[in-house]
Give the backbone structure.
Amino acid sequence: MKRRTSYLALLSGMVMSGLILAAPGFSMNSFAAEKANGENAFTSGTTQRTASTANLVEGYMHQQGQDDFPGYTLNTNRRAYLNEINGIVYDAILNKSKEVAAGKEANTKIEVTINIKDILGDRYKEIYYPEDFGLESFTDDAGDSNVFNVLNNYIGFDPEKIIRTLRLDCPYDIYWYGNEYDTTNGFVLYREEGKTTGDFICAKYEEPITFELCVSADYSTSGKGGECNADVNKCKAVKSAADNANKIIQKYKSKSDFEKLKAYRDEICNLTAYNYDYIRNGVNRYGNPHQMINVFDGDPDTKVICEGYSKAFKYLCDGTDFNSNIIECYIVTGNMAEKSPSANKALHMWNNVRMSDGKNYIVDVTNCDPDNNNEQPSNDLFMVGAKKVEGEWLKPAAIDVYYSYEGLSTGSYTQNELAVSETDYDPKSEVAEEVTINFNPNGGKVATESITTYVGGCIEQLPVPTREGHKFIGWYTEPTGGEKIPDAVKFVSKCEDTWYAHWEALSQGEAEYQNQQGNSGEQDGQSQNQQENPGEQGGQNQDQQENPGGQNGQNQRQQDAQNQNQRQNPAKQDNKNNQQNQNNDTNPKANPGAKENVTPQPENGTISAEEGDFETSVDGTASITGSANKKIKSVNIGNEITNGNVTYKVTKIQPKAFKKYKKIKSLTIGDNVQEIGSEAFSGCTGLKKITIHANNLKSVGKKSFKGLKDGVKINVVCREKKTYEKVVKKLKKAGASKAKFKFVKG
């Protein structure tokens, strides 16, 4: 491969020894910059995109290879705003476009048959005359027909809107599109023979609409624009590059985080070489040296410059499930100088990587790549720290080079994201750090006051505290409110933390029963399958009676109509032999657990609780409708909500339940939730972390997560990766397209 005699010989902007001052075609493309241009401009039959073909190709690779790739679209789900006929054509074009993008189809002509009678309904006629549209004629003074526009307007067919929507929703699936199209409909203009006027239109029940999408020169069979045949081999190469890149990710998935990063550097250096011809002479024989496809395409003749190296490294990092969930790779741009900041400097692109210690380190894969195939990649500029010198320049300790950021990076990243550790990364620091969890009984008693584990570890069983006259309902992150801690903690974050017990006051009967049972002692170590309610007998199986007013040992599943003589209102009992049971059930002294003499049943109603407001149903389910506290900071929608002695499963989040609750920072959705209503969390701009237990989640409503800030973290907890993938797609469609998703098995 290559070994630099000068580090600056690698730079994409300036080369040492006076060879060249600016590389031809040098690109610092950034979607952050491109998005600022706003919506695409359209003219009849021509679309003018803001993103380059090369960037769209990379987006397609990301989309194919990474299930949680958020994309860089200007908007999302614009398809929902199309009318019926435009939606039908949109779907047909998108389906064909995906085939072309994957190299499965060459012809980019699409024909769709539209049932005009269904579209128009009562407005449909077999023959239309100019006066039907307020016109004197379908032709203008020059004799040209206006029927195309007239009929398109009448049926609501808008070709430009369809193409614009595709560019906003699915830019990567049409990376091959050359920004020109032709379209026709099947309507025919007739005129009576021998007459110059009296033209009319015949409309069949079904009419064909044809779209011809022109292919860009980069992906056409001829290498020229304006034709409607894509080169399937070129398109297959894009899909193949994504597959090759993701094989690398899978190859090293069992390695430590540092070993993964090191392996990615080595793989990139082995797959490509630096494109000296392009830098020195402006000559590029194969491919685009700015883009990462030249790294993963399997072609040794395609070479890259710094932009290709850094994008390839980020691509692999973005697709990796690191052991630490805070690791992130950034692409940064700026200047690089050798020996002195005041001497020669040139434009450059490299990576910063944030590691599990929370610090950023420089990774310059370009300058790690040796010229000689027999040499190993250099460590001089891999995972290194740097100290500030002479203003804003960063100097690594091991090598006499300097880095500084330029406007695109300083305008796109925070100071924390650009700050670099002063020392090099130590792989030994990946040894798991201990973390202590303190348990605050919050007015009660707990025998186990703390548990020590490690970052990323789990706690299989939490201690169970007690409090006289109260029922323990779980551990939370705050003394009041906060996020509920699951019974078995799968992942402990990196910090010393305190969790607080939350309580629910017992009724007088329940409290007396608790005292009778002597249940004021600590229950640490009790199986999760046993009773956790301090108001009930310890060791009783959950399959047994959970109602403290019931007969101990009686299985709830066996309480049916035949047993009602022991459980119902004694006034309704005729059997004198049951009189003693009636007395026991209604006398707290005889049966101190009794609260009512009728078994509580689910009913339609409302509940106001700390978690929010709920509507309950006779089928034993509940839905959360929101919260009276508009300034609530943490929303924890648990698996169940209890009202008295009746427990309801929380299965639904109502539409607009927490719409524009801008103070919410964290959200947890329990495993019983099956449906998230439309706009449920729309406009919750303060959300930073969302945890969704998704094993039973079936429906995510429209715009339910619209308006979230970019980069909000969403952990999806489920048993299967397939379930995770389906849920992520639903969440993206609902507005969370720019969130950072993570699969948590559970």
Q: What stands out?
A: The chain is about 20% helix and 20% strand. The first strand starts at residue 41 and ends at 43.
